[in-house]
Design goal:
Layout: H1 4-27, H2 33-45, H3 59-82, H4 87-93, H5 97-108, H6 115-132, H7 149-178, H8 185-192, H9 197-207, H10 210-218, H11 222-249, H12 252-255, H13 262-274, H14 280-314
Length: 315
């Protein structure tokens, strides 16, 4: 049974992560995406690494996670939103990381699939296809959400990198267990935040040019600082710090489902703050994605419970 305090903490984290997408959109108004990524992880790493000891894993896992979850996932997500991917819809599409995680876990960790997971993959995949083929219809809202194909593709690629990073976390956890050490996801995230800043800065210089980078720094304002601070301290340090603490106190099955609320708060915040609206087909696609994820997470447990109940009745 989750205590009232921890329930509040879990809801706080998913709200922070949901609002995160709108903050990214606002932060991109003041600086290019790669430079925003650079400052996000720079502030997440310093000064935290001066007070938090390194995780009990090899540096290769820290570096690989920093490159995949940091540069890969957030670099592509930031760029997708910069190119016009609606922030609210990005919060939904990014959840396809669960689909990629299943595929990569099967390929690299030899984990077998259940029929409910296959069904969930098909439904969620169908939802992504519906979103990708949605079109603009007449509306009173000027901010009606048009999806650039490249933005959708980049968001899916970001989700794929998230899936890869999940496999890296499992591998790092196995190494820590083999060493009879406790794996701390919070320490892992903090120290891996040291990796992305330099690649992000080089990408910004290469993609945006030296003049754009210098101009962004010269025009640095309170909105840019607030966005960077929120992404670093809120979404990264607070979010992962509290989330890892909850996972250490409760079974993963009690905590992980809360993450399904992230897209809800993502869509709600983007609608209230940015005025984003989805058309009917986009809502249908979102519903299919969320339904597929629910089946992936809960489907096998429901069938297992029903089988157990049936055996009990037979006795």
């Amino acid at each position: 049974m989750i205590s009232l305090r921890d329930l509040f903490l879990a809801l706080s984290v998913v709200i922070v992560w949901g609002v995160n997408f709108t903050v990214i959109k606002l932060g991109l108004e003041g600086m290019p995406p790669m430079l925003l990524g650079c400052f996000r992880f720079l502030l997440a790493a310093f000064p935290a690494v001066l007070f938090i000891s390194p995780p009990a894993v090899s540096f290769r896992w820290i570096a690989a996670y920093g490159l995949t979850a940091g540069v890969g996932q957030f670099g592509l997500l930031f760029y997708a939103i910069e190119l016009g991917m609606p922030a609210g819809l990005a919060s939904v599409v990014l959840q396809s990381q669960a689909l990629f995680t299943l595929v990569f876990a099967s390929l690299f960790l030899r984990e077998r699939w259940y029929m409910t997971q296959v069904l969930g993959l098909i439904i969620a995949g169908g939802g992504l296809i519906v979103i990708g083929n949605s079109h603009i219809e007449p509306t009173l809202y000027k901010a009606f959400s048009e999806i650039p194909l490249v933005g959708l593709i980049l968001t899916l690629c970001a989700a794929a990198f998230w899936g890869v990073s999940n496999i890296l976390v499992r591998s790092a956890w196995r190494e820590a267990v083999a060493r009879d050490s406790q794996f701390s996801m919070f320490r892992f995230v903090v120290w891996s935040s040291l990796v992305p800043p330099i690649p992000f800065l080089l990408l910004s210089l290469g993609l945006d040019g030296r003049e754009t980078v210098i101009a962004s720094l010269q025009n640095f304002n309170i909105l840019s600082f607030a966005a960077i601070a929120y992404l670093a301290f809120g979404a990264t340090l607070f979010g992962f710090g509290v989330w890892s603490g909850l996972l250490s106190r409760y079974p993963a099955g009690h905590i992980a489902p809360f993450s399904l609320l992230v897209p809800i708060f993502g869509l709600l915040t983007a609608s209230l703050v940015l005025g984003e609206q989805l058309n009917e087909r986009q809502w249908q696609g979102c519903a299919l994605v969320m339904m597929g994820l629910l089946i992936i997470i809960f489907g096998n447990r429901i069938f297992a419970f029903r089988r157990k109940l049936a055996k009990t009745e037979d006795i």
